[in-house]
């Protein structure tokens, strides 16, 4: 885990789902707001492991196989 990708930051990608797809299989921590409209999509599309929460921000990783829908 070398760095954190802020999925709410417009510079990461025009579409946070594209950023996730590009970085699948890598040891990356992502952050996203609990209120993001992308969060339910991410939870349904990927197996995620929640690392921590700081206020309204959720830090998570995508499971190694990246598929399915299972939250941890």
From TrEMBL:
Domain of life: Archaea
UniProt name for this protein: DUF2249 domain-containing protein
């Amino acid at each position: 885990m070398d760095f954190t990708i802020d999925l709410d930051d417009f510079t990461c990608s025009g579409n946070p789902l594209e950023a996730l797809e590009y970085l699948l299989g890598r040891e990356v921590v992502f952050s996203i707001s609990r209120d993001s409209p992308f969060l339910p999509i991410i939870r349904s599309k990927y197996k995620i492991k929640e690392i921590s929460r700081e206020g309204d921000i959720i830090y998570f990783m995508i499971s190694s196989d990246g598929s399915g829908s299972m939250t941890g």
